[in-house]
Design a protein that fits this description.
The chain is an alpha+beta fold and 415 residues long. It is 56% helix and 20% strand. The chain is built from 17 helices and ten strands. Helix 1 (4-14) crosses helix 13, helix 2 (21-63) packs across helix 13 (313-344) and helix 11 (260-298) runs parallel beside helix 16.
């Protein structure tokens, strides 16, 4: 139980006395270091959580949790496969599609593109695309009307706008005595979308499924079926009956197999960053230790007098423990404010640094995502706070023990 006089002594020791300015400076540096460490951990971990969550949502929003792909890029009896997939417990939707890498051309510019064919109802129901239209409208797309939706980055690279025509070049064209003549078809851009994943925004062209079948010369076949489940982490178990049924007919690839290297790398990087940034807090804790040791040496005479007045060893230990943990707690509070402030203005900070340095420090072509994301995990923040307070408490134990071990007879012998 902490008594009133112990709290009073703690408050007095937190303020600098005569000739104790240097000790106060070291304590202030400790507080700032704790704040910077906590802020850095919160900001970095939140950004990495946001990066993983955003990348996960965007990738799975476009590709689903798994795809059933026919051998040779053709799935002939797809209505039956579609029905079998929808009948599985845990499957929330199954969508037929065609996906093929081709070439896109406009105004003499040529870019590699990925053409995806979807039924119009499925396309308009896809929130990842439908909620990120930056130009035109998906309602303008019609089967047989020669209309497509393209990614915003691709539109920039080609210089094409809504209402203009883009040519798609299919190398698998018509055979002639002089060789294969590529199939070139012009389509009108009806909509432009920006989902926020650079690789998709710079390459994807989406058209009605029937038009894609005509362009790819697939007749009534499709290339794959996209499957979405109610639990992405259990997608393998959910689709296992379908894998067995389609053995030798089609291949079932889930998101874990397709993106395992990417998400595993993110987990490793997040873990490494946490422990590397924790070193800042450890250094700050050593500063608290140093300042308390100097404070104990400066207050040796005061400690001896308190002991002669009846203060117990436990009381003195509590005083110095409270001094150290108060510095740590103040640093944690300042770190929380600074960390959440950095997260609130993260994009403005990134843009400002980019303008000052003249370099794009958040290049979407390297970072995958267009904007810097963030997602704060309350339990993670609580863990950072508890870790910092625990380290601050540990740093106070040795100086507090030294203060409690002071022999008043030896100190006051010549007073």
């Amino acid at each position: 139980m902490i008594t009133a006089y112990e709290r009073m002594i703690t408050r007095r020791y937190l303020l600098p006395g005569k000739g104790e300015g240097f000790i106060f400076l070291v304590a202030g540096i400790s507080l700032v270091a704790v704040a910077l460490g906590v802020a850095a951990l919160i900001a970095v971990m939140s950004v990495m959580n946001g990066f993983r969550a955003e990348l996960f949502d965007r990738i799975l929003g476009l590709n689903g949790h798994a795809v059933v792909q026919g051998y040779g890029g053709r799935l002939e009896d797809w209505p039956q496969v579609l029905a079998d997939a929808k009948a599985l417990p845990g499957v929330t939707s199954a969508v037929p599609m065609i996906e093929q890498p081709l070439m896109g051309s406009y105004g003499g510019r040529v870019e590699g593109v990925v053409v995806r064919g979807l039924r119009l109802d499925d396309l308009r129901a896809n929130a990842t695309i439908a909620s990120n239209i930056t130009g035109g409208s998906l309602n303008a797309m019609r089967v047989g009307a020669g209309t497509v939706a393209i990614g915003a980055r691709l539109a920039e690279q080609l210089g094409v706008r809504v209402g203009e025509q883009i040519s798609l070049i299919n190398p698998a064209g018509q055979s002639t005595p002089f060789g294969t003549v590529p199939r070139i078809v012009a389509y009108t851009v009806a909509a432009v979308f920006e989902v926020g994943v650079y690789d998709y925004d710079k390459a994807f062209i989406i058209m009605p499924l029937e038009d894609a079948q005509t362009l790819m010369r697939l007749d009534d076949a499709v290339g794959m079926i996209e499957v979405v489940t109610d639990d992405p982490d259990q997608v393998g178990r959910i689709l296992d009956p379908l894998k067995q049924k389609l053995a030798g007919i089609a291949v079932v690839n889930d998101w874990q197999a397709s993106n395992s290297a990417l998400f595993s790398a993110l987990v490793v990087e997040q873990t490494v960053m946490f422990w590397v940034l924790s070193i800042i807090i450890v250094v700050a804790v050593f500063n608290i230790l140093s300042s308390l040791i100097m404070l104990v040496r400066a207050k040796t005479r005061d400690i001896a007098i308190l002991r002669t007045m009846g203060a117990s060893r436990a009381a003195l230990m509590r005083v110095f423990v409270m001094v150290g943990t108060s510095i740590g707690a103040a640093g944690v509070a300042a770190g929380l404010v600074l960390g959440f402030g950095l997260l609130q203005f993260r994009q403005g900070i990134v843009d400002g640094v980019s303008r000052l340095t003249g370099t794009d420090i958040w290049d979407p072509s390297v970072r995958y995502l267009t904007l810097l994301p963030a997602k704060t995990d309350p339990m993670e923040v609580l863990g950072i706070v508890l870790l910092t307070l625990a380290l601050s408490l540990l740093a106070t134990l040795y100086p507090a023990w030294k203060a409690a071990s002071t022999d008043p007879v030896t100190v006051l012998r010549y007073e």
